[in-house]
Amino acid sequence: MADQFTSTARNPRSRQLWERACRVIVGGGQAHKRPVKYMLRGGPAFAARAQGAYFWDADGNKYIDYLLGYGPIVLGHADPQVNEAVIRQLNAGTIYSVEHEASVEVAEALCRTIPCAQMVLYFIGGSSATQGAIRCARAHTGREKIIRCGYHGWYDWCWPQMPGVPHHERELIIAVPYNDLPALRAAMEQNAGQVAGVIIEAVQGDGPAGDYFPGVRRLCDEHGSVFVLDEIKTGFRFALGGAQVPFAIDADLATFGKAMCNGFPAAVVVGKRQFMEKRTDTYLAATFHADALSLAAAQVVMRQMEQRDGPAHFERLGRRLIDGLNGVFLDKRLPLKMGGFPAMPAPMETSPDDPVNPVPPEFKGKTITEFMAGLQNRGVYATGHPWFLSLAHTDADIDRTIAIAADAADEALETLKDVASGRREALPYS
Ligand SMILES: Cc1ncc(COP(=O)(O)O)c(C=O)c1O
């Protein structure tokens, strides 16, 4: 199939590895997260190495990286201080049969930094942290139903309709839209006395309306449900203490992961003491929880992010990126816009009734992918997923990205016209 598409010259090694991967790895890899469609337009499917704000693909092409492993890299790839701390820890052992001082130090730092944090539970990966949070909510309330809003990982309760998930999850999990208090109120009322917790991904799209989280807080209090804020993406980026700082969100529990360890896998549930201190009543332990390498990395991340004011850096560079790219889109009449927040800029297609730059019907649903393919072909790695920045990104990277975006927009428009007229193969756009 790959040969039907263009740009084969840029990524022969990626394509070759992909063919091999598809024979032995289900779906060729983490295909839900790492879309291979870009490979069909010349983008990378395999990385070889990474340093600072950049990575190099298996064909030797260099990219400014705005996905950063989907968010964990916050200081920069292969950060020298993280590496030094982790190598020191490697030489002192990676996992022990008893506790380790670093777990206390990191927990103390988290409790100093995150407004709702009075106690900490360690996990591996964001999915296991969100699972831990809903277990805590259920244990605390003795109830079973969970209202969820946003992406929370891959566990059964996150995907009640998926093949392989027991049918009863559908009765226990209720999904509601973001920023929709009437929908949340209705779900709480229809399930009165049964809702253990409400878990919400902190920042989605253009963020919370002013009355949203105060309303969530009130509804949770009225119904005796635990309010869990999912900060796996936003933690350490919107502020060191997460999005709960700038948006003044009063959550009972919160999940943090990704950026906490600059690429190492620990994640945590933090929260108010009364929701956590009795949780030895349920089982939340696993072999690799609080692994020493992640904790060594977390100590460096928290110190560096504070000393160098990481969130201010993201705010400044992210604002430049959003404004610069929006200028390009208008100038080129490419129907896209960068929305979201400087800490997490989010590309969106414009709507057909946008007064200034509407998406034509024949481009609908395709514009983001073709623009990102154009960026990737020129050495900027980004997709339709919200973008991330690291402390290693510089003003020069932003300037270069905006300059490249103009050419990528031209290429995207050409491709979109060719796809619309059937001169060029359409990608699997979804
Ligand atoms: C808001 C949110 N919660 C939970 C998760 C799951 O984290 P992980 O992929 O580390 O399991 C993610 C991952 O992208 C996320 O963005």
Structural description of this entry:
It is built from twelve helices and 13 strands. It has 430 residues and is α/β, with parallel strands linked by helices. Helix 2 runs antiparallel to helix 9 (292-307). It folds into two domains: 2-77 and 309-421, Aspartate Aminotransferase, domain 1 (Alpha-Beta Complex); 80-307, Type I PLP-dependent aspartate aminotransferase-like (Major domain) (Aspartate Aminotransferase, domain 2, 3-Layer(aba) Sandwich). Pyridoxal-5'-phosphate is lined by residues 70, 125-127, 130, 150-153, 201, 230, 232-233, 257.
What is the helix/strand order? HEEEHHEHEHEHEHEEEHHHEEHEH
Structural class: alpha/beta
What proportion strand? 5-15%
What composes the largest sheet? 7 strands, mixed
Proper CATH architecture of the largest domain: 3-Layer(aba) Sandwich
Taking Cα atoms only, what radius of gyration do you get, to the nearest Å? 22 Å
Brief write-up:
The protein has 430 residues and is an alpha/beta fold. It is 37% helix and 15% strand.
